[in-house]
Amino acid sequence: MSLTYFLRRAAFAALALAALMTAAFFLVRLTGDPVNLYLPVDASDAAREAMRVRLGLDRSLLAQFFDWAWDMLSLNFGMSLWHHRPAMDVVLEALPNTLALGAIALALAFTAAIVVGSIAAVNAGSWIDRGINLLSQSAASVPDFWLGLMGVLLFAVTFRILPTSGFGGPVYWVLPVACLFARPFGTLVQIVRGSMIEALNATFVRTARAKGARDGRVTFVHALRNALLPAVTVTGDLAAQFAGGGGVVEVVFGFPGIGKLLIDGILKRDFAIVQASIFAVAVVIFFINILVDMLYASIDPRVRVE
Questions:
Q1: Residue 86: helix, strand or coil by DSSP?
Q2: Letter string b/e over residues 228-256, b meaning 16 or more CB atoms within 10 A of that residue's CB
Q3: Residue 157, class by beta-carbon neighbours within 10 Å (0-12 exposed, 13-18 middle, 19+ buried)?
Q4: Could you give the CA distance from residue 114 to residue 132 in angstroms, rounded to a whole number?
Q5: Which of 126, 132, 120, 133 is nearest to 197 (CA)?
Q6: What is the pTM of this model?
Q7: Tens-digit pLDDT string for the chain (306 aa)
Q8: How far does Cα 65 stand from its chain's mean position?
Q9: What is the number of other CB atoms lying within 10 angstroms of the CB of residue 146?
Q10: Is the backbone of residue 31 left (phi > 0), alpha (psi -120 to 50) or beta?
Q11: Three-state SS at 79
C-alpha cells in the first residue's frame, strides 16, 4: 500500500468525518435541553439560566457551533455532564472494551465460518449441507437482544453458571461474545459456502485435480484462497458495525463499552459524550477499512492498492 493511497483515503475520510461531526452537533441538540434533565422540575428560572450560561447554551446555535468546531481540532469535546470529566477521557476508557469484545466475537465467527462453510461446500447437496444451511440461516436471523435475554434466562437465572451483567473476568465476556458471534457466523457461513462451491467448480481447480493434487490441498489452498475474498469484504463491514459497539448487547449485559456509553449519553443528553463517541468510532472505522484493503492485497496478488 503506497503512501499516496493512504493520504488520499485519509483526505476523503477527513471530509466525511467533518460532515458527520457537523451533523452530529446539530442532531444531538434535537434531543432536548439538558438543563431540564439535570435540574429538578421546581428549579427557579435563575438557576436554569445560570446552568445554560455555564454550559454555553445561552448563545446562538451558530456561535456554539464555531466554538465547538475550534475545540474539536484539539480533540476537546468538553466536559461530560454525567461523568464530570473530559468526555474524550471517558470515551477512550470505554473504546478498548468494545474493540476487544468485537474482535473476539468476529475472529471466532470468521474462523468457525471458514471451517463450517468449507465443509458445507465440499458436501453440497448432502444432509450435512442442509443441516449447516439451517443452522447458519437461523444464526443470521436471530435478533441480538432476544439471544441476549435468552442467554441471561438460561445460563444466569436458571443454571446460574454465568453472571447476568457486569464487567470483570472471562466469565463476564461469555454471553456478550456469544450474542455478537451468532449473526456474523451465520452470514459468513453462507458467503464462504457459496464462494467455495463456485471456486471448486472453477477451471483452475479442475486443472489442479487433473495434475494429481490432493483433495485437501485443492480445497484449502487453491479454492479457499479465492473464496476468502468475499468473506473478507463482509467481515470488514461487520467489523465497522462492531466498532460502534453492540449497543443492544452492551446494554443488555451492562457491558461498559462505547455502544452502551453512546446510548446512555443520548438518553442523558450528554452532548459531549455523544459527540466524542461518534468521533472515536468514525476514526476506528477508517482504520478498519484500510486494514481490509491490506488484507485484500495480501490474499489476492492481483489486487493492488496504489
A1: strand
A2: beebbebbbebbbbbbbbbbbbbbbbebe
A3: exposed
A4: 12
A5: 120
A6: 0.85
A7: 567 777 888 888 889 999 999 999 999 888 778 888 788 877 888 888 888 888 888 888 899 999 999 998 888 998 998 888 999 999 999 999 999 999 999 999 999 999 999 999 989 889 999 999 999 999 999 888 889 899 999 999 999 899 988 888 899 999 999 999 999 999 999 999 998 888 887 776 666 666 666 666 666 666 777 778 888 888 888 887 777 656 788 888 989 999 899 999 988 889 999 999 999 999 998 888 888 777 776 766 555 555
A8: 28
A9: 12
A10: alpha
A11: strand
Q: How far is CA 267 from CA 56, 112, 170, in A?
A: 20, 37, 29
Residue type, 283: V
Task: Give the whole-angstrom CA distance, residue 92 versus residue 103.
Answer: 17
- 8 A C-beta contact, residue 17 and residue 282: yes
The cell 468510532 sits on which residue?
A: 281
In this structure, whether the domain defined by 89-299 belongs to CATH 1.20.1740.10 is answered with: no
C-alpha to C-alpha distance for 158 and 167, rounded to whole angstroms: 20
- In eight-state DSSP terms, residue 153 is I
Strands (E), 17-129: none
Per the listing, cell 477499512 goes with 289
What cell was used for 268? 442523558
pLDDT (0 to 100) of residue 208: 66
Domain boundaries, the chain: 3-87, 89-299
Burial bucket for residue 265 (CB in 10 Å: 0-12, 13-18, 19+) = buried
Q: Contact 294/1 with Cβ under 8 angstroms?
A: yes
